[in-house]
Write a structure and sequence with these properties.
Distance between the termini: 47 Å
CATH superfamily: Jelly Rolls
Shape: globular
Radius of gyration: 18 Å
CATH class: Mainly Beta
Structural class: mainly beta
CATH topology: Jelly Rolls
Strand content: over 45%
């Protein structure tokens, strides 16, 4: 077994306003082309920064962090209008195309979370769109006697398995790290470890790296065990999925394998084939 690691990846400020702020890890821009994780955004939002917009060819995954003041309201052209509170997740599996909008459930209160763009392999690029959701009470947890605690948002850990099953294998762990945990990496999977707060050490085989707050480390190889150790109490996200060894062409909210597929997605959107979603009207409540 052998595990390779990237240089430490620092998050970049993409927006820094009173209504909307975001720090971003853009792994494809850094040359990590086989990663199923294209972008990881750590955001805080109070307003409605984006109007309804289309996605195609990947999954937009929004996870509400447990300290968020409010939940996430997610609407889409499939007819879904739902709210998930802190600790909940909405997985928008765009496939051939869907229009969606995500806003704080309570206007004026801060929504704190992360959004991850998860690439889809060519065989599922044009699958029928589907939106999956999971509230906090349905996200299984794992803990040990030294105070470490994990929310298994997607995938599994030590026999604890999430009921949310996307179209392709994926693991999403929200880790409250107080001492130490070990994670078994699968062969040919790409794993991103992102420290939201605190400071951790990542150790595998004969190497170790320090990953401070708001920075990330990418891992890949033919599998093996990785140990995460808290040098101070830390909040960590670990996301992982099979490497995608295909060409990637991204344009706005579309991620495809060829430029012609981007042009086709734009044309289908303009023809209304991804459905319709009217702008949000004040006073209209979500479906629970």
């Amino acid at each position: 077994m052998s595990i390779q690691y990237s240089a430490i990846i620092a998050s970049q400020v993409r927006a820094n306003g009173a209504e909307f702020s975001v720090r971003s890890i853009d792994v494809h821009a850094l040359g990590e082309q086989t990663s199923p994780v294209v972008v990881l955004d750590h955001f805080r939002v109070r307003g409605q920064p984006f109007a309804p917009h289309p996605h195609a060819g990947f999954s937009a995954v929004t996870y509400v962090l447990r300290d968020s003041e409010t939940g996430l309201r997610s609407r889409d052209s499939l007819g879904n209008d739902v709210v998930v509170g802190p600790g909940g997740v909405v997985w928008t599996q765009a496939g051939s195309g869907v229009i969606h909008e995500e806003v704080p459930a309570e206007p004026g209160r801060e929504l704190h979370g992360v959004q991850i763009f998860v690439n889809t392999s060519a065989k599922h690029k044009f699958a029928a769109p589907q939106v999956l959701e999971l509230s906090r009470r349905h996200v299984p947890t794992w803990s040990n006697d030294t105070g470490d605690r994990l929310s298994v948002v997607v995938g599994g850990f030590c026999g604890t398995v999430s009921p949310l099953v996307p179209i392709e294998p994926f693991t999403f762990l929200d880790v409250e790290l107080r001492r130490e945990i070990s994670v078994e990496l699968q062969p040919d999977h790409y794993t991103l470890v992102y420290t939201l707060t605190g400071d951790i050490g990542v150790r595998a085989e004969r190497w170790s790296r320090r990953v401070p707050s708001e920075q990330a480390l990418a891992l890949r190889g033919d599998g093996g065990r990785v140990v995460l150790t808290a040098t101070e109490a830390a909040h960590v996200l670990l996301v992982s999925g099979p490497e995608i060894r295909e060409s990637v062409v991204a344009h706005g909210s579309f991620i495809m394998n060829e430029l012609a597929q981007i042009d086709d997605a734009v044309a289908r959107y303009r023809r209304g084939e991804m459905g319709q979603l009217a702008p949000l009207k004040q006073g209209r409540g979500p479906r629970s």
